[in-house]
Amino acid sequence: MTEPAVHVHNLWKAFGQQLAVAGVDLTLPAGKFIGLVGPNGAGKTTTLSMVTGLLRPDQGTVEVVGHDVWKDPAEVKARIGVLPEGLRLFDRLSGRELLAYTGRLRGLPGTEVDKRATQLLDVLDLAGAQHKLVVDYSTGMRKKIGLAAALLHNPEVLFLDEPFEGVDPVSAQTIRGVLERYTGSGATVVFSSHVMELVESLCDWVAVIAAGRIRAQGPLAEVRGDAATLQEAFLELVGAHGRDAATDLDWLGGGSTR
Amino acid sequence: MTAPAAAPAAPAAAPSLTPVFVRLKLSLLRNGLRQSSGRRAAYVASAVVALLFAALQLLGLILLRGDEHAATVTVILVAVLALGWAVMPLFFPSGDETLDPTRLVMLPLRPRPLVRALLVASLVGIGPLFTLCLALGAVIAVARGGAAVAVGAVAVPLTLLLCVALARAVATANVRLLTSRRGRDLAVLSGLVIAVGAQLVNFGAQRIGSSAEGLGELEPAADVLGWIPPSSALSAVHATGEARYATAAAQLILSFAALLLLLHLWQRSLTRLMTSPDGSTLAAAEPDRRQRGGGLFARLPAGRTGPVMERTLRYVWRDPKTKAAWVTSLAIGLIVPVFNALQDTGSVYFACFAAGMLGIQMYNQFGQDTSAFWMVAMTVASTRDAYEELRARALALLVITLPYAALVTVLTTALLGEWHALPETLGLSFALLGAMLATGAWSSARYPYSIPQQGHKNVAPGQAGLAWISIFGGMLAAAVLCAPVLALTIWLHTAGHGSWTWLLLPVGTLYGVAVTGAGLRIAAPRVARRLPEILAAVSKG
Ligand SMILES: Nc1ncnc2c1ncn2[C@@H]1O[C@H](COP(=O)(O)OP(=O)(O)OP(=O)(O)O)[C@@H](O)[C@H]1O
Ligand SMILES: [Mg+2]
């Protein structure tokens, strides 16, 4: 086997008292569609931020395509594309200006940037809004322009934090198409999500994270194990199986005021 | 010619529309007040204050009658009032729902009767009543003789209509802007306009207070304003009283023409608005003028420098917070030296204020990016990248600052007539600018803080200390950095080498360049090393 796309060893991060990531070890193979799943607050965003160099870990090492993210940022940053969650874009630029800016910042020649931007805007169905300021985009459109900006320099590894959040089914299908073709050419996509059906239908490799720790990782079939669906296996792994909300919220429903 | 009110355009529908709108306005007002007692109290309180103020104005103006400066004062008052009417819809776009044309789009109304009905409806309210009091008082103050009173009887409604029509025309013309997100950003600038306006008023008052002529100082201004509607209507009353009938007639005709023009413009934009798509979708359909990406920006250097400069300059114009900061700096950088020069209390050295104020924009560079800084962090992989990033930002700043500082310096020198001091002042300005850029780059790297995007605050909670260190520490450091050039200036003057002060221009410029270069080089490794920390610090807004 070739060298892994991402290798994370013993990664820790605490925000004050709150332990967000507690000793994550991950080895993600290259050329795969990889899903990072976990409940809210599991540490997915924190992990991805540390892996992409946007957040400094308290402890641990991260290697992307064989280069240490913190010791060798030049090698890593040129090879990865990122769509973070909860961070803004330069949203006072229009969609096209944003792509032109990012592409040229990445060192691509202007004509090449324009060509790629036009194609990406077309494929992602943003051509009609390309001259609108990103601040006036809808949530889904913002995800899509962020994805375009992340893809522009044809990275080897793409990190996407909840790329399908707020995206309509049609656009989701489009994004899937783009990403599948992209991994088909040997690139790696790592994305986080809570939507198990989506992960199950898209990914060949899954890592389950809960409370800052990896609960399982491996090929989809392996993680799913004997369970009928990934959803079942997931609930089992994060220890939420059998928890019944109905008993706690017995006042909810029926419309009576008491 | 027929006045617009008697236009034969809509024979059957016209009589009914106007009362409908007036009633609509009244019931909206009533319903609004019924909603909550707090709102009612606020409305009543503001109405009482406004009416009291109006009554006092009226009284004051009546007392002013016969004063030699009455004409000057009234003309200026009305001009200020009209200005208020013109800018109000920009800052309080949702003030009057009846007048919001976007709500009328669905109705099958023809523009001409609609304009008439809207005009009449907008005469209902405290604002128009206030204006009426002021116009009435102004006429009483200046009208002398029967003819003047007759003209005044025309001038009062004319002034009122002009004010209201002006507000409506501005509001309608701007409705596309105001219904977009970008337009609401204007609100951020409102505080600023008020601040600068207060400066100007303060300056004017000081001038009037300090000069022997008093109000007479304002006469030239009043002479000009007297020809600008709606002040022209009042000027006509005054002119009639002085038997300058030709002037009076001209000013009156001018006022009428202005009213017709405003109504015409209003009607045109109303028609366009009602027949074209909703404002929120307009931006997407905008012509492809930006596609070229050419013009000025095409000539910017390649590599990181070009795109970063381009983005920075676009943000100066498009980002409300950045724009407000720039406008403040530009305004103060001009007002302080020029006003001081005008008052003869100034010195040429005040011209350095322009460079100093604009240099502040280099501070907290990354805070201005907000959390979008991650896009920069993702592409900065070495000290070299960080250096180029900082240098590009400094260059973008210089594109505006250099010509502006030079202009202010020349202007100040010209006002004071001290041309011999021009080179040294320019040199000092450039040295100061260099020092500001250097310390600004360094403190951007060392003490970044978040600028919240909502509201008027410029520092995120808990980071005020950081902001103070960043800016005031930086400015102090900049002053210290300037010391060598300052010392040279002082030495040249005290040692009697006054004829050599031109040397300060090349020396100051070179010093500024050198100090900037050094500052950027010291700041760059810090930025490259602290990217995640900077991102965390600027993402709190
Ligand atoms: N900047 C921060 N300051 C303090 N605590 C934080 C910060 N960022 C994350 N946390 C905490 O770290 C934990 C992990 O958060 P993280 O955002 O990584 O979760 P996540 O898996 O991405 O969740 P979600 O699915 O809701 O996006 C949470 O408990 C969160 O409260
Ligand atoms: Mg998350």
Overall description:
The complex is a heterodimer of chains A (258) and B (541). Chain A is an alpha/beta fold and 258 residues long. Chain A has a domain of 165 residues: Rossmann fold (3-Layer(aba) Sandwich), CATH 3.40.50. Helices cover 36% and strands 24% of the residues of chain A. Chain A is built from ten helices and ten strands. Chain A has a six-stranded mixed sheet, with helices on both faces. In chain A, a hairpin with a 2-residue loop joins strand 9 and strand 10. Chain A is globular, with a radius of gyration of 19 Å. Chain A starts with 5 loop residues before the first strand and ends in a 10-residue tail after the last helix. Chain B is mainly α and 541 residues long. Chain B folds into two domains: 239 residues, no CATH class; 237 residues, no CATH class. Chain B has 23 helices and no strands. The termini of chain B are far apart. Chains A and B meet through helix 2 and helix 3 of A and helix 14, helix 18 and helix 23 of B. The structure holds adenosine-5'-triphosphate and magnesium ion. The site of adenosine-5'-triphosphate (ATP) has 12 residues of chain A, from strand 2 and helix 1. The site of adenosine-5'-triphosphate has 12 residues of chain A, from strand 2 and helix 1.
Quick recap:
With 258 residues, chain A is an alpha/beta fold. Chain A has 10 helices and 10 strands. Chain B has 2 domains: 37-275, no CATH class; 303-539, no CATH class.
